[in-house]
Amino acid sequence: MGLRELKKEQTRTLIADTAWRLFADRGFDAVRVAEIAREARVSEATVFNYFPRKEDLLYSRLEDFGERLVAAVDSRPAGESVLDAVRNFLTRSSGILAQLEAGDHEALVRLRTVSRMIADSPALRAREQQAIAGTTAALAARLTAETGDGGESADSGAPAVDITAYVAANALMGVHRALIDHVRRRVLADEAPDRLAADVRAYGAQAFALLAQGLAEYGIR
């Protein structure tokens, strides 16, 4: 990464971190973009250059997560199915759930704050679904390219997404959506946060075992 690219990435991270801190303190709807810009010591135009919509300030990290998920599928070793690649990615011990499991109280505070913020904001919930849908579409397109089953769109001439790939991507991402909803419900209800990471792994394993009955042979490289 060159110096210019590094500086841009640092600015983007600074803006996102500043926004998360202000959102956590006062709630998403109460914070204006101009305040984020002032706190980060950049112009409002700079904020919008990096994050075209206010919701993007919160969900850029979710989209980064989606990109890493698709990359994990793309880089899976020979003999590994798509189901195994997604399962391994989603159920590994990392991120904020791993911090909770280690007894990090600050991680619990952050997770509760963000969960309440999203639960209280229709705009954020809609943006979350958009981010997940984008990851689902990217995964379906990648699987179509890999299997070579998509053909060509009759309308645009662009590569068409194979229906089987689209169904598989939606089934796999459905587990992700279900686990997100489970975590949010548990966190907002203050239910046994010390067990949350272990329970998510267990429920994820159950969900993928169910899918394996129909997807076990799909997408083996």
TrEMBL record:
Residues 9-69 form the HTH tetR-type domain. Pfam families: TetR_N. GO terms for molecular function: DNA-binding transcription factor activity; transcription cis-regulatory region binding. PROSITE patterns: HTH_TETR_2. The keyword Cell wall biogenesis/degradation does not apply. SUPFAM superfamilies: Homeodomain-like (SSF46689). InterPro entries: Homeodomain-like_sf, HTH-type_TetR-like_transc_reg, HTH_TetR. Keywords: DNA-binding, Transcription, Transcription regulation. Residues 32-51 bind DNA. It comes from the Bacteria. The keyword Transcription applies. This is TetR/AcrR family transcriptional regulator. It comes from Streptomyces sp. R41.
